[in-house]
Model the fold of this input.
Amino acid sequence: MRYLPLTPADRKEMLSVIGARSVDELFKDVPAKARLSGPVDLPPHLGEIEVERALGALAAKNIAAGQVPFFLGCGAYRHHIPASVDHIIQRSEFLTSYTPYQPEIAQGTLQYLFEFQTMVSGLTGLEVANASLYDGSTAAAEAVRMAARITRREKTIFAGGLNPQYAETIRTTCGLPPEALIVCAPNFGGSDGIEKLIDDQTSAVVVQTPSLFGDLIDLAPIAAAAHAKGALLIVVVPEIVSLGLIEAPGAMGADIVVAEGQSIGNAMSFGGPYVGLFAAKAEFIRQMPGRLCGETVDADGRRGFVLTMSTREQHIRREKATSNICTNSGLCVLAFTIHLALLGETGFKRLALLNHQSAVKTAEALEAVPGVKLVTPAFFNEFTVRLPKPAAQIVEALAAKRILAGVPASRLYPDTDDVKNLLIVAATEMTTDTDRTALARGLKEVL
Done:
């Protein structure tokens, strides 16, 4: 039997109590174009076995990252995750634990959150870090809101290398009016002169490094220009492994650093769950969103851990809250912490070096293909090439050959003609010489 908890009479009574004439009226605030005009295009009823077969057939149309040469990036990266990470996080005391409101029975959870914050602080070069947010994009949005509270200004500048999906998340979350937002044009292979756009009304400058196109950005001059006008520099790091080789953003003057932590301990998983990293200068700690875990001592002088700097407004008074993200990606944080602890500082640097070497080899292989030009002068594990034909067409042709060649820039900038021949390619420690050979050979054939 189908599970139908409410009868028509039940629904009618509920609608009358809340003053609605129909169920459709409950959805009047949802734009019409976002609503379905009819039932979903699926069979109305199938048995369990038939449903499993139908969904299995749909799933079989996907190409998994590990099945073919894989060069996709743009904020989600394929890295090796030690089997021990998954084994540990599936222990019941980790997998089923809930929010550590009672420190006396949650010391284990609080300790790994504290260790995680310590790691994030070390990676970013800033004094304080929180216990994570949902993902890199929502962390970026919270950073913009935090900057507005600190500076009491609204104007925000997006650098040209900021992932448009991050930019859209910031717009949606912060509700920035058009007049308060300056978005630099897509930029690759050089500076977009963002320093000249900063004025006395600027709240924050949002810069991504490595940029969407793979460029490594010198943050120091941007930080100096922002601070001269009383603005803050927010740095977005989409590939946390890059901080194993490049200078920490905090050391180059960043005020707030947000990052996507998926690359460490967390699989791509079709887009989530991921883990947002958030760090800032100590002077801004009371404006930081999310949770912070602190170290203390108990009545007997023994080391202990507690949630700190979190007001009740975070949980019960939305309009007065510093942030309305009142949780953290706990299990993903644990996976991140375990993986990074297993690597250690030396292992993390070695992993970053392997990524860079892999990308250099891949770029050299593609540059050897007639008509392909590298347009990213300095990169970590992701770079952009210009093709003699539209990149989207090339990607489709290579996908038919079971090669996932990268992300066409036109997918992220559909209305910008200048980028239609640009292909963004990522290579990690998982990329083999065989993969590179297949990509180069495939490109020659389809070009």
User: Anything to note?
Assistant: The radius of gyration is 24 Å. The first helix runs from residue 8 to 18.
